[in-house]
Amino acid sequence: MRPSYHPEGLFDENKVASSSASKEQANPINQLWHQNGKCPENTIPIRRTKSDDVLRASSVKRYGRKKHRTVPQPRSADPDLINQSGHQHAIAYVEGDKYYGAKATINVWEPKIQQSNEFSLSQLWILGGSFGEDLNSIEAGWQVSPDLYGDNNTRLFTYWTSDAYQATGCYNLLCSGFIQINNEIAMGASISPISAFRGSQYDISILIWKDPNEGHWWMQFGNGYVLGYWPAFLFSYLADSASMIEWGGEVVNSEPDGQHTSTQMGSGHFPEEGFGKSSYFRNIQVVDGSNNLKAPKGIGTFTEQSNCYDVQTGNNGDWGHYFYYGGPGKNPKCQ
After folding, report:
1. Rounded distance between C-alpha atoms, residue 305 and residue 327, angstroms
2. I want to staple 296 with a disulfide (CB 3.0 to 4.6 A). Which of 37, 94, 276, 300 is the partner?
3. What are the φ and ψ backbone dihedral angles of 272, each rounded to 5 degrees?
């Protein structure tokens, strides 16, 4: 299938020949497996699942699944509830409207992970429903997850669930759900090159939008790679629209040795360090009911422990709405 409509917005790279857009063309992001060739027409690349991959999971049933309760709840009245899952976030978000998609350009780094059962990711969340047992979520971005992939590479990923991570959904193509149509980009494949501290910066654009005709949620990577779609029938609330959009970072803090993990989020540096040092999301946008990309209204931010990982938003002509996020985890102020 192909989507019937595509949201055209302010920061369409074809229309805006800004300095950052032209720089982006000079630094294309590739996937490492392309060095060995590409897949023919009418096929898709699927990352091979090996027995080792499954054996690293806590159980075969949990392979490719997120642990429960890993969506940041900015308004949660009970902070203990958020921390008990050991997940920490530094995010920007919007709520209070009906959303039909979201877009962001995400700075790509390779954060260090302290324990193999932890991960660090940077993604957008498209959320529907309450944060109870019936939460619907579509997620996409980059992640470093030694347990899932067996290494510390930064990889493109997607995720979905229709029951708050309990029985439905998975990463990438590890269960049925997401339908891929693209033969060039592989889910779960390593992204290259990676940004360097005070060096070259690389970012990836991700757009997820709801086709007004069919109702499916489509994903686009970069400028022209429509990757595939999540069929509307997978979801309850998201069959209609999303009620909240979140952008940002998430890590698992398993508190090794009873202290905060030193797993990094983003670049491992705090937002105040700025470009080239701290990781960013730029040109963050939402898709409205008319299938147009719009600047998000009333952006909030949320982090459980700003001494460990933080977030700072801003706005300018070139980058639109943006934020820096992340941090080192364990440090003298974060034990």
Report:
1. 10
2. 94
3. -65, -15
Q: What is the pTM of this model?
A: 0.89
- 27 assigned to some structural domain: no
The span from the CA of 163 to the CA of 137, in Å, is 9
Q: Is residue 197 part of a domain?
A: yes
Question: Which letter does DSSP use for residue 307 in this model?
Answer: T
Between these two residues, 213 and 329, which has the higher pLDDT value?
329
- Which is catalytic among the residues 13, 110, 118, 139? 139
Q: For the chain, what is the domain count? A: 1
- CATH value at residue 170: 2.60.120
Residue with the two structure tokens 């429903």: 129
* Catalytic residue list contains 24: no
Q: 28 lies in a domain?
A: no
Residue 17: pLDDT above 50?
A: no
Preceding omega of 193 cis (within 30 degrees of 0): yes
Task: For 151-184, write each residue's pLDDT tens digit.
Answer: 999 999 999 999 888 888 999 999 999 999 999 9
- Is 139 annotated as catalytic? yes
On whether residue 307 sits in a domain, the answer given is: yes
Residue of 250, 272, 273, 304 marked catalytic: 250
Per-residue model confidence as pLDDT tens digits over 244-271: 999 999 999 999 888 999 999 999 999 9
Determine contact, residues 175/182, Cβ cutoff 8 Å. no
Mean of per-residue pLDDT scores for the chain? 88
Q: Structure tokens of 43?
A: 């096929």
Q: Residue 250's beta-bridge partner residues?
A: 89, 121
